[in-house]
Amino acid sequence: DGGGGDWLSNVAFVKVDVEGFEIAAFRGMRNSLFREGSSTKVGGMIVEVGPDRWGRANIGFEAGVEEMKNLAENHFEKSYILVRAEGGHAKTCPVSLADVVADKNPEEFEGNKMYEVKLEEWEPLLKKMESSHFDCNFYFKN
Question: What pTM was estimated for this model as a whole?
Answer without folding.
Answer: 0.89
